[in-house]
Amino acid sequence: MTSSSGRRFSGRVALVTGASRGIGEAVARQLAAPDTHVIVNYREKLKRARAVVDGIVAAGGHGSVLGADLADETACSAMVQQIAADFGALDVLVLNASGGLELGADTDYPMRINRDAQIRLTELALPLMRPNGRIVFVTSHQAHFHDRVPVPDDYVPVAVSKRAGEDALRAMQPMFDSRRVGFVVVSGDMIEGTIIVRLLQRRDQEAVDARRIHGDLPTIDEFASAIVAAATGPMPQDDTVYVGGQDFLARIQELSCTPSS
Ligand SMILES: NC(=O)c1ccc[n+]([C@@H]2O[C@H](COP(=O)([O-])OP(=O)(O)OC[C@H]3O[C@@H](n4cnc5c(N)ncnc54)[C@H](OP(=O)(O)O)[C@@H]3O)[C@@H](O)[C@H]2O)c1
């Protein structure tokens, strides 16, 4: 983006998908800094996305909104072209937007948004990414471990499609390496205060209680901090960062140590 002097923004450029609310909003706000321009992507909620950018600017950061339904190939491609025209490069891509629980969504929608759209955006954005850039894929423990843990019925298509997206992105690692771009997956337990958990609580209180029984769930800000650290801090030793759900992770560890009969 050019300033009034005609010069392009010279600092870090970060795109956060689905940053008009929830976890993406918190990530966008935490990424904000005087040397960083945060592009707040949204699908429908322009007013909310603008409010996020206003908050970033009021706190001394730089930001702009860029709407695109990521499931729409043309819109996604136009978004990346706009970033190329405005900034010429990208340093951070946070793949946060997700879907599949929307009322009336087609049965193939979870795969389209959680796998196909994530791959397409990553392929389109990668040529813009500067060396030492970072791509972070945001997921849930119930998606990451969906084949080993019980998942609420409504969430199964989302869990399966998010894991398919994660696997497809991991398969792109040689492309990331060749451009010296880091790739990190950040997986979280249910996150307190999100709309998804509030909805689930109405439909399946037991599923939420089953997670809360082990202690407080991570908050939106705690999860967002881990995502921001993965996006801007030193490359983590492990390419997967887990937030919350220690009981859950211990159980997975136990299962992987138990010899199958
Ligand atoms: N909630 C949890 O407990 C939890 C736990 C672990 C991991 N996660 C992960 O964290 C991420 C964010 O979750 P959340 O609960 O904050 O989600 P959310 O409240 O449902 O917010 C979704 C965001 O994604 C945007 N979005 C939805 N569909 C889109 C599309 N087709 N194209 C572009 N943007 C789209 C929405 O934009 P509009 O506002 O314009 O509709 C919104 O900004 C997801 O990847 C999720 O799997 C969540």
Distance between the termini: 60 Å
Any idea what the radius of gyration is?
A: 18 Å
Strand content: 15-25%
Count of alpha and pi helical runs: 11
Report the order of strands and helices.
EHEHEHEHEHHHEHHHEH
| Major sheet | 7 strands, parallel
Dominant shape: globular
Structural class: alpha/beta
Number of strands: 7
Q: What do the pLDDT scores average to?
A: 94
Written overview of the protein:
The structure is a single chain. The chain is of the alpha/beta class and 261 residues long. The chain is 47% helix and 18% strand. It contains eleven helices and seven strands. Helix 1 crosses helix 10 (220-232), helix 3 packs parallel to helix 4 (109-125) and helix 8 (195-203) crosses helix 9. The longest helix has 17 residues, at 109-125. The structure holds NADP nicotinamide-adenine-dinucleotide phosphate. NADP nicotinamide-adenine-dinucleotide phosphate (NAP) binds at residues 17-24, 41-45, 48, 69-71, 96-99, 113, 138-140, 188, 190-191, 194-197.
Q: Which properties best describe this structure?
A:
single chain; 261 residues; alpha/beta; 11 helices; binds NADP nicotinamide-adenine-dinucleotide phosphate
Give a quick summary of the entry.
By secondary structure, the chain is an alpha/beta fold. It has eleven helices and seven strands.
Secondary-structure blueprint of this entry?
Elements: E1 12-16, H1 22-31, E2 36-42, H2 46-58, E3 62-67, H3 73-87, E4 90-95, H4 109-125, E5 129-140, H5 141-144, H6 156-170, H7 173-178, E6 182-188, H8 195-203, H9 205-212, H10 220-232, E7 240-243, H11 246-257
Parallel strand pairs: 1-2, 1-4, 2-3, 4-5, 5-6, 6-7
Helix pairs in contact: 1-10, 3-4, 4-6, 8-9
NADP nicotinamide-adenine-dinucleotide phosphate binds at residues 17-24, 41-45, 48, 69-71, 96-99, 113, 138-140, 188, 190-191, 194-197.
